[in-house]
Every structure is written in C-alpha cells, then in structure tokens.
Amino acid sequence: MSKLKRNERIGAIVKILCDSPNKVYTLNYFTELFDSAKSTISEDLVIVKKIMEELSLGKVVTIAGAAGGAKYVPAMGKTEKITLIEKICEDMRKPERVMPGKFLYMADVLYNPTYTKGIGDIFAERYSDDDKKVDYVLTVETKGIPIAMMTARGLNVPLVIARHENKVTEGPKLSINYISGSTGNLQTMYISKNAIKKGSNILIVDDFMKAGGSAKGMTQLVSELECKVAGICVLFDTITPSQKLVERYISLIRYEGIDTEERIMVYPNFENLE
Fold first, then answer.
1. Distance between CA 209 and CA 245 in Å, rounded?
2. pLDDT score at 181
3. Which of 15, 189, 239, 274 has the fewest CB atoms within 10 Å, counting from its CB?
4. From CA 253, how far away is CA 214, in angstroms rounded?
5. For 95-144, how does the pLDDT look when each residue is reduced to its tens digit (9 = 90+)?
6. Is the domain covering 78-272 a CATH 3.40.50.2020 domain?
C-alpha cells in the first residue's frame, strides 16, 4: 500500500475506531498499518479527537504509556439525544398503534436500526467509564434484544440472553422462578452456566418496565451467578405502579397510558438525557 496523506489516514482512523467502539487500538497497530512514525499517528489522533468532540460524534479516548493507544466511545450531545428520543415519542403517538385492550404496537420502533443504535449508544456512554466497568450485557428473551445488542456493541462486550424455555443446546443452566410484576404470574428464566464468568459486572437492558418483574428476575440471576449488577437500563417505563420491584434504573421514555380520546401519552425522560 502506498503512503497515505494525513487526511486519508484520518479518514481511515475514524472508520476503524467507530467500527469497534470501546476497543483499544495501540499506536503500534496504526504505525504498522500506515507505515508511519508514532509521533505522526499521535498528531493524527489529536485531530480526530478534536473533530469528533466538536461535532458531537462521540469521544476518542487516548491511553498513555508504552502500550497506549486510543478507543472510540459512543457519545451524543444533549441536543442530539433529545432529538432522537422526541422522534421516537412522536412515532409512538400514532393513533394506529392502539390495539384492542389498549395494548400498544411497538415492534417496528424496537426493530428500527436507527433508533436501536442511538438508544444503545446512550446506554453505552453511561457505562463506558473505567469505574463503571461492564463485562456483559444481559437481557431477557423479548423485543428488547436489539437494544441490548446495540448496547453490547457500544461497550464492546458480549450479549447474554436469559431464556423463558430450557434449551438443551445451551448446556447446563441456572434457573430462577420469579413473579411477573405486571401479571402476578409465576415465570421462569434460564441462563447457561457457561455464558457468564463468576465475579463479572453485568448491565441489564430491557425494552419496557411496568412493575419491574423481568428486571428483578435478571438481578436474581446475576446474584446466583455470583456477579454484580452494574446498572439497569430500559427504553420505556410506566408511571404506574410508582413503586417498582427494582431501584436505581435508567429509563429514556415515560409511558403514562392512553387517555379517554385514545391519545398515547409518551414523553422523554429528560433527567436521563443529560
């Protein structure tokens, strides 16, 4: 490969870093790739870092030392976060989403790649600091899997899915019986014993929280695995019941129900978009 100009190297560095969020690339990696001196690559990274921060495209974190390098951390400015969440709320307010029994159709929102990537980046940004180290993202077998996957990608960690059925193909499993906070029914979650290492920090991600039964079940699984809950993140939560089965969780959208005129009342949870 012929020697690249600075603007060409910068374009390549941005692509490499953004393709693998929270993965550290050493200076040696870039010097060998571009056949350039470490001082030259260091100058390139300073330019990349400045551009990304000025345009609110994320953060480039540089690591000092002999094995130093750089990594990209997904991040959005407050305005960009609010714009994304307000757009999701606007989409959710469409009257045709109301189904018999006043249930909401939301699968298309939860499976929209633009929405799920943005949501995953918001959650990943919260837990990208070294003092909030996350080893795995855990979700339950439901519509929240795309959000959890994007969060795991943003953190550069594996995604683990708790199942509602005992699948033989996943080997020995741990199971938890828990009471659904919304229905009051007894349910069971299964997780492979090989999926998570003992002593890990687990971020729980889900799409919707009413009473918090699913999240509570996942926290119990984490405890049985002898691991710690790093945090709980959900896209939607409800105003009722006000007392959830879990504490200290983050939600991005508050669902207040459907009024007498069948208007869907969903609003950004601004305090979690700082």
1. 10
2. 62
3. 274
4. 18
5. 999 988 888 899 999 999 999 999 999 999 999 986 778 999 999 998 99
6. yes
Pairing of the two strands 69-73 and 25-26: antiparallel
Query: Is the distance from CB of 93 to CB of 258 less than 8 angstroms?
Result: no
Q: Which residues pair with 60 in a beta bridge?
A: 72
Which tokens go with 64?
């000092």
> Which segment of 76-90, 166-180, 258-272 scores lowest on mean pLDDT?
166-180
Residues 236-255: tens digit of each pLDDT: 999 999 899 998 999 999 99
Share of the chain above pLDDT 70, in %: 97
Give Rg (Cα) of the chain: 21
CATH architecture of 6-73: Orthogonal Bundle (1.10)
Task: Supply the DSSP string of the chain, one letter for each residue.
Answer: -PPPPHHHHHHHHHHHHHHSTT--EEHHHHHHHHT--HHHHHHHHHHHHHHHHHTTS-EEEEE-STT-EEEEE----HHHHHHHHHHHHHHHT-GGGEETTTEE--HHHHT-HHHHHHHHHHHHHHT-SGGG--SEEEEESSTTHHHHHHHHHHHT--EEEEBSS--GGG-SEEEEEEE-TTT--EEEEEEETTSS-TT-EEEEEEEEESS-HHHHHHHHHHHHTT-EEEEEEEEEEESSSSS-SS-SEEEEEEEEEE-TT--EEEEE-GGG--
For 14-71, what is the HEC assignment? HHHHHHCCCCCEEHHHHHHHHCCCHHHHHHHHHHHHHHHHHCCCCEEEEECCCCCEEE
On average, the pLDDT of the chain sits at 92
- Cβ-based neighbours of 273, under 8 Å, separated by 6 or more: 78, 81, 82, 85, 122, 252
